[in-house]
Amino acid sequence: MAKIGRNDACPCGSGKKYKHCCLAKDEDAERAAHAARDAADRAARVAAAELWSFDSDEDMDDELTVASNAVVDLVHAGALDEAERAARELLQRFPDMHDGYDRLGMVYQARGEDRQAADCYRKVIDIIRSHKEQYDAEFETVFHKLIEQLDPPIAPPHESQSS
Fold it and tell me: Helix-strand-coil percent breakdown of the chain, rounded to 5?
């Protein structure tokens, strides 16, 4: 794709010059995507260097936090394919933690794939329930609300009343 010049018409169709319309927003998105990729790359390098050996639970928590936050950054930057790959890595590296399914749900949600997102959030609930000692009792409620919004139950049809 050809690069848009600052003085070209904005591709959004506003009729304004690009520099007075979408340039700043596009530059912000590019910076965020770059920062997210850097964070994901750092997390992957750290994980590869440590080869899954953590000196303490705190080191594992730090690694999980960095990798999980990198996925969020990628989603916010619109780099959804990269975010999905990073979320799937989280699932492999930390299978007993909710983060992988939570982040994968965010990716699906950003794509408008609400049922798939709800299915991921259901898996988060399963993990929370199977590791109750690691989670606040009310944490599960967050995911129930997301599921209700994304995949509401279908109401049974009402019978019409005869006059």
Answer: 65, 0, 30
> Are residues 24 and 55 in contact, defined by beta-carbon separation less than 8 angstroms?
no
What does the block give as tokens for 80? Answer: 């959804």
Contact call for residues 103 and 86 (beta carbons, < 8 A) = yes
Both tokens assigned to 113: 């794939």
Show Cβ contacts of residue 74 under 8 Å, excluding neighbours closer than 6 positions.
Answer: 33, 36, 37, 40, 80, 82, 83, 86
Tokens of 77: 């930057």
9 pairs with which residues across the strands? Answer: 17
Q: Are 46 and 63 in contact (CB under 8 A)?
A: yes
Q: What angle do CA 20, 26, 27 make, to 5 degrees?
A: 95
The whole model's pTM is what? 0.62
Contacts of 53 (CB under 8 A, 6+ apart): none
The model's pLDDT over 2-61, given as tens digits with 9 standing for 90+, comes to 788 889 899 999 999 999 999 998 888 888 777 777 766 666 555 554 444 444 455 556
> Alpha-carbon distance 101 to 119, whole Å?
9
Q: SS3 for 38?
A: helix
